[in-house]
Amino acid sequence: MVNYLDAKILTVEDDNNLRKTLMKILIREGFCVASVSNGQEALELLELQKFDIIITDYKMPVLGGEEWVRKLNELQGKNKILLLSAFLEEAKVVEDEVGDSISKPFKRKELINKIFSLLKKNNFQGRDGGNTSSVD
Predict the structure, then answer these.
(1) Quick check: 55 and 28 in contact, CB under 8 A?
(2) What are phi and psi for residue 55, nearest 5 degrees?
(3) Rounded to 5 degrees, what are φ and ψ at 97?
(4) What are the beta bridge partners of residue 11?
(5) pTM over 0.85, yes/no
(6) Are 72 and 65 in contact (CB under 8 A)?
(7) Distances (CA, A) of 126 to 3, 11, 27, 43, 72
(8) Phi, psi (5° rounding) for residue 100?
(9) What is the dihedral sign for C-alpha 51, 45, 101, 19?
(10) Does CATH number 3.40.190.10 belong to domain 4-121?
(11) How does pLDDT run along the chain (136 residues), one tens digit per residue?
(12) DSSP the chain
C-alpha cells in the first residue's frame, strides 16, 4: 500500500500567517513541507528539489497570477498544483492549468483530502511503502 504521507509538499503563499498555518497543518499530518512567499522563490527552490504537490496562492506580489500558474504547470504538470485562493472566480482563467483548487478560508479536512486526491491522480508511489492514508 502507498503511504501518501511520504509526499513532499511546497506551499507558495505571500500571507505570512497563512503560510505558517499551512505549514503547521501539513506537518501535523505528517507531510514533508517546504514553504516560500512567492512564485519567484518557488522557481528557485524547484531548481534544487522536486515536490509531489505544490499548494499555491493565486494573487501574489512577486510572480503570481495567471503567469505564475501557467509557468508552474509547464514545469510540474497540472495534477501537482493545488490552487489556494480567495479569488477563485478571478482565477477561473487558469482552472485548466491546475489539478484542483480550494477557496480561502478552507477547512483542514478539505485541504488534506484534495492533497490525497492529487497524489492519487499523479500515481504517487510513496518513498517507503506503508499504508494508504485518508482523513475521516
Answers:
(1) no
(2) -100, 115
(3) -95, -5
(4) 35, 55
(5) yes
(6) no
(7) 6, 19, 17, 24, 22
(8) -165, 170
(9) positive
(10) no
(11) 567 678 999 999 999 999 999 999 999 998 999 999 999 999 999 999 999 999 999 888 888 888 888 899 899 888 899 998 887 777 777 788 889 999 888 999 999 999 999 999 988 887 654 444 444 4
(12) ---GGG-EEEEE-S-HHHHHHHHHHHHHHT-EEEEESSHHHHHHHHTT---SEEEEES--SSS-HHHHHHHHHHHH-GGGEEEEES-TTGGGGGGGGSSEEEESS--HHHHHHHHHHHHHHTT---SS--------
d(CA 54, CA 103): 15
For 58, the grid coordinates are 493565486
- Tell me which residue has cell 513541507: 33
| Number of residues that make up the chain | 136
